[in-house]
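Notes continue from the previous slide.

Worked example: a multi-chain complex. Inputs as given:
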Amino acid sequence: MQIAIDRDRDQPLYHQIASHIRQHIRYGQAPIGTRLPSIRQLASDLGVTRLTVETAYDELRAEGWIETVVGRGTFVARTASQEERINRLSSEVSPRGILEDLQRISDIDVLRSLAYAEPDPALFPVESFWNIIANLKPFAQDLMGYVGAEGDAELRIAISGMLRERGVESGPDDILITTGAAQALTLVTQSLTRRGDVVIVEKPTHITLLHLLEAQGVRPVAIPMDGHGPNLNWLEQAIVQYQPRCFYTIPNFHNPTGTLMSQRRREDLLSLARRYQLTIIEDDIYGWLPFDTPIQEPLKALDDSVIYISSFTKMLMPGLRIGFMSSPQPLHNHLLDLKRSNDLFTAALFQAALTTFIRSGHMRAHLKRVVPHYRQRRDQILRSLKTHMPPGVTWTEPSGGFSLWLTLPSHIDAIWVQRRALRLGFAFTPGSAFFPDNSGSQHLRICFAQQPPDIIEEAISVLANIIKQELYE
Amino acid sequence: MQIAIDRDRDQPLYHQIASHIRQHIRYGQAPIGTRLPSIRQLASDLGVTRLTVETAYDELRAEGWIETVVGRGTFVARTASQEERINRLSSEVSPRGILEDLQRISDIDVLRSLAYAEPDPALFPVESFWNIIANLKPFAQDLMGYVGAEGDAELRIAISGMLRERGVESGPDDILITTGAAQALTLVTQSLTRRGDVVIVEKPTHITLLHLLEAQGVRPVAIPMDGHGPNLNWLEQAIVQYQPRCFYTIPNFHNPTGTLMSQRRREDLLSLARRYQLTIIEDDIYGWLPFDTPIQEPLKALDDSVIYISSFTKMLMPGLRIGFMSSPQPLHNHLLDLKRSNDLFTAALFQAALTTFIRSGHMRAHLKRVVPHYRQRRDQILRSLKTHMPPGVTWTEPSGGFSLWLTLPSHIDAIWVQRRALRLGFAFTPGSAFFPDNSGSQHLRICFAQQPPDIIEEAISVLANIIKQELYE
């Protein structure tokens, strides 16, 4: 095993050593079971300290690339193979299992993932964002200290402006900054529910929500959707039967189905909610990414009593961990208090950088730049589905967001199809994870936002072949 | 009101306008009630858009500097005066009230705060940290995407190394990265307790813990401390009487008292815990900042069943929002699952930057640089207390951490003293906030870490004068 290190590079030496070994394993030059040099030997060969080599080995061990057998030495681990990594993906099709796999899937080089509703990292505005951070250095002492739990006032002003453009009148004082939309959902669940309470959700619904309801011991009851949104007869029945604490809905480019709730359905939903004094939690995380309509108002624009949740995760970058919510008083103050108790405050540097990003017009420009890419991918996936899928397979046609919902003929098991696809190098999400009752085994979610058109075409063609084999063989 | 803007500066124009107006108000050039130019007028005077001025006014309004009276115009608000800002500080001496004031106090220019146990921003390693972030730009796509809920593997390896130096054998897989120590406390409370359960705490104890127990409906029962740590007779009685879920302790440089638990007390505590199968939560957030002893092992070094919590908030910078915990299985997996449900993951960029900071030796150098400053301030405050305080006032003598605990003669009310001190320009924390039963009205916490020696001397002299007045007049 030949390892070259470069002392002039910024990368720490241990990191260079670990990278080299990783590459050797990846490209098959060091197959499973290969013995690695001892720490003492490698340190002496490279002229580095033993701690440096030890640190590199620690890192590779933690990642599953190598293993040490006491008294015998260090070897390339069985868990280093791609196939083994795929085998280790969760066999449990549940919100927890799917969320646990998120990172693992992205770590397997050979997999092309259409499994997660994530923005494409290649579209991140890295240059402008790093410049903004560099320019914030004079304010570092403030930005690295404690700030208010409610979030940066300037960011709340900027978000208030963004919301106004979409018809929502929320002032800066109505807005709470959260550590991603996930935290907003956690806070609102903590505030509105107790263990054993019922929350109504759509069927299917957002994985993270199901996971956090389970963690908090809150019971989700799911009502069916159609092409216009949630079925309100079912909702009314569920209200009467379960006396739920609230209804969680994703009206704009629903995850996983991509459905855009119709205007009529919105009005009917709100009037039903008023009649039964039902609290509505609106998740608008995809609402900023419309492909075909110029602007889509949230429910919050029609009724200010709605609890509105969104985030910069999908429209900008997940790694910011910045979400936001607007809710009526006195709930807002209770949520602020819970936010403070959960993690005190959200990192100020990213809040300040994001404020500059919005104020200087970068946010608007970014959306203008990325939406055509996502639209093109949506167009591609619809074309590919039409070309390759056999009769009996149906799908939704999203007008925004990151995902669509595929329905297989009833005797084909989506979990089987998904496992088969993994072996062939493509990841999708099995539908059951989106149902609180683990039904939905006929469905797959396909996320088209992260892959370029040629990969999408390949993925759908592979998927169609798996389904055809199942149908005709 | 004369406002000059500079189009060549990086700062947005609205921000420059807001800064200028703020300065005018601060230095008395625009007293309360002064009418500001209309948006149209100022925009035309400065040659900027009306939106720019509107944004500046929005910001100043959100901050309480100005107010708009519909139909009459915009004026310097009554809430803009320093005195008014002091009056608006929470009148509620509770964990919630004290936490709410945190940001407000730091926003009042005239106040010198010794109220919060925070590191001194002037000691933040801004240069090296910003350089590290700049060098991470090539990895931006990964660092701004989704990462694992457990935290960056390299950071966990680095933390494992730091812990090993303090006698704790926690491998990377035992460590969970959290959004500050506050989130670690939230997760462990969510995992171990249900509404109505009892948790034993020290008396006094950490404000944030009391606040989050209240938010989660968990009942704290407090047991007295002496100079060696918690009183174990009381602890045993509380165990028998309340069957608590766990005991929360801060053995190293306790907040608020600064007490270092003696070796003997540690051993006795752990053997008591084993006898009653009591779960111990160790908060070691100050353990990295010893003034007089070279190294202080955590409880975790003596007993691996302890749930260990720490963070980079005090030893480095609060704005990172990076805490960590080490706990035995299967609890670790449950905490990881709750972490995922609470906010999915902690921002990767700061985790990566912190990893480099630790690995490259900056962390060690930083501690070596800051500890002498904090030690000098501790020495100063003990000297000043000895010089100025009248007989009957006593205090603890911390050998590390950020705070000490002052006890007043029994007929003097600490809240009154603290209010008086605010008027004279110094903030301390009233003791009641650290007691679940709101007793402790004889105590003040004094945090010496954020102020240079001359301010500490002035603060203690002012405080002593207030107490003497109360005693002798």
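Summary box: Residues 68 and 74 of chain A are 4 Å apart (CA to CA). The domain at 126-360 of chain A is CATH 3.40.640.10 (Aspartate Aminotransferase; domain 2).
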